[in-house]
Input
Amino acid sequence: MRLGLPTLAFLLAGTPLLAQEDVVYDFFDGCPAPDASGPMDIWLGAGLWTPLVEEFQAECPALQVTFAERSSADNLTGIRLNLSSGQGGCDVCNIEVKDFGQFLDSGAVADLTDRVAPFREMIPEAAWSYVTDSEGRVRGLPVDVGPVVLFYRRDVFEQAGLPSDPDAVSGLVATWEDYLGVCQQIKDATGRACFPLSRATNDARIYEMMLWSQGLGYFAPDGGLTVASPENVATLELLARFWQQDLVTDSESWTDQWYADLSSLDEPVASLVIASWMELFLPTWIAPDTAGLWGVARMPGGGEGSPRAALDGGSALFIPAHSQQQEAAWGFMASTVLDDDVMTAFRTDPTRGGILPAITTPFERPEMNRPLDFFGGQNTTALYLDVYRDVPAVGLWGPHYTRANEAVRRAVQQVATGAATPADALAAAQAELEPLLR
Output
């Protein structure tokens, strides 16, 4: 049955889904769980998920599907309650990958190792690593990823006498030291700041990207802490130089001033290191008047042999171990997340454009590789795929990531405001985290 693309209005949890009459999508070839019956709860976002769930319901009439759209924060709260109580909640659950580590070894998440085995080569190993528990059992199915790149203003680079072609810019910023030097050139030539980087409210995200792009993290393979390692300290020392040399604005992420830094035609920042999903936000609501002024380049790294790749964001689907609809849940997951047509639509449909699928098989399709006018006619997808394939698995998004980020965030803020040296701030953060590993 083919179903129409509905509006993005919220559907109340507990309300059975009804198929729409408009013909748009036909992604299911019959019910992927023909023997399943009874109630089933799916917790996902809006956009293309809505017609997919509706079509699933229509193809599987013996199931009584309820669909709850939930924000990331509400979803995480509900998942914690669901898994701790061992009853009710979602049968298909969506979670940000950075939050999944706290549940992987809990015994409360279904083992998908055998189910995903035929599909392992469709998804790079870095994405699998963050849905895999300490015993090597796969507990989730990656949906989308956020490879980190450098978004930059072509006009600012040209005003500074620098090349603005993406390949040339990638070469200019091969290392974080190189990027620092480029930022200094831009500041000297134009007076422009290089990127927004709040001091007192810093969230440590760019610091984590710097670590990741060098193959570094917070946790060693043996489970020990590397928060205060010499390499991590050196990375924070380098980050501090952007403040010390007055190369950044003191704008908190996702605030009006941050948006103004990116959208200004007169006094913009020159660049932003962030994930590929920023491609969706810049042209639609952050900086729509800057069409043609942006380019996308490879992010900096740590020198020869470093990956110059990281992730920021991404999500996965999983099934609670207590779910009574595991066959139906897996049928829905496999028929959507592992389907080239579905994931191509997620990348190209106007309601979901910019989402980068975890599976790489659709990436060679022409519709995935269209030139984007907003980015000067650049085919950004090709770059994202190259970065995604190079992302290493590092000890960052583990079981204690949330606590580690909180401790390191305070350390970065102390360094930024001059309250502590990088070595002292990270030593204090490591001491705070050590009891978690005992």
About this structure: The beta strands are 38-44, 63-69, 92-96, 141-153, 195-196, 248-249, 271-275, 294-298, 311-318, 356-357.
